[in-house]
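FORM 7B: Structural annotation worksheet

SECTION A. Query
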Amino acid sequence: EYPVFGSGHTDQDRPGTRESEIMTRITAIALSLICLVPVSTTLAVDSITETEKIVPAGVGGNDSAGWSIAMDGELIAIGSPRDNNANGGDAGSVTVLDADGNEYLLIASDGQNYENFGYSVDVSGELLITGAPLHPIQTREGAAYIFRRYADGSWVEGAHLVAPNGHWSDFFGCSVAISATTAVARASPSAFEDPS
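SECTION B. Predicted structure
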């Protein structure tokens, strides 16, 4: 097993950023998304060795790639909530990497500007869940999306989840989790942190 760490920023000289917080706690780690060699159950900073820095293809400096990450087996999912793509500026995306070196870019079927798709992410087997806490941007009620991986390796959006009693600025999807066929998504106005 290999632990994975993420950082939504790549400039280590920016005090007060998520990256500087990570660097303060674990000074032996470089930046962005990093795979590490196996470590014992007692994690010591001295036992951590960087083996690879992963940067998704097409990710720009302001996309917040690594803001959220998840790993299951040989799959790694990397959230980039500020990614500019076909859905608009800061619409967000998730990149999935598999053991064969393939990359799959996931975006929301109904995404819009500033929705921060990829703000949170989790993966379990053939299923992936990600949050877009600012969806739709007009109300910021939030949403979560579930994708399924098929035999050809492709990922297809299968469900779009919203809170049944959502309100303005609920930020549903600010954190998500999935295990087997059970998925959860959280709504919490106080939990949302701007990934910029």
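SECTION C. Observations
The two ends are 31 Å apart (CA to CA). Helices lie at 18-25.

SECTION D. Sign-off
Analyst initials: ____
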